[in-house]
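== Folding the chain ==

***
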Amino acid sequence: MKIVIEGPSAVGKTKLCRSIEAEFAAYTVQETIVEPIPGCSPAEEAIHYLNQEVHRWQISEEMERKHPLVLLDTDPFKSLWFNKAFGYMNCMGLQELDIFFGPLVAAGELRFPDLYILLDADEHELQRRKEQDSHRERHEFEWVSLANEMRRRYYRQINHLLPGSVWFIHAIDADATVREVCRRIPILKPGKLSYDNYASMIRWLAVHN
């Protein structure tokens, strides 16, 4: 079973992944860190990082044969809502993303997970956590935070398509968040998100600003 952990920077995704690992012998596929690639054009960089997300999914498929639960720290489809949040400026547009993702989803080589867990907190709380985190710089924190509302809308729509496929958790207290998630995981059943759901999300992104 695969679970994607999503949420704003500094909300506690990595801490939650580590706690679930310890509790359920889970495996975590770490997020892709996007950095400039010397000698690559923006288009080449974009394809490179999309391929990195496909590779993360492939790792999750392999690890699912060895672990009862696999976590993905951030969504392999993140670019769908993230690029939308910035109006597709200086990044791949929706049609280009669909040309890349669509055939992979149709072939079963990439799909939505069994569950999304969306952690969230207000901007003041996220800023406080960012300032207290001495282990990570988060240089683009303010810029990335602009995508928070689109993230919320995107996952609300996924949950509308298949109720219960997203857990929305207001992550004010990190320990309470861990307890809540670990309490609910044992009763989790595999999800039913499909290619039709992916196609529905592409249509939704095309018409909603």
Summary: The two ends are 33 Å apart (CA to CA). The longest strand covers residues 115-120. Residues 42-64 form the longest helix (23 residues).
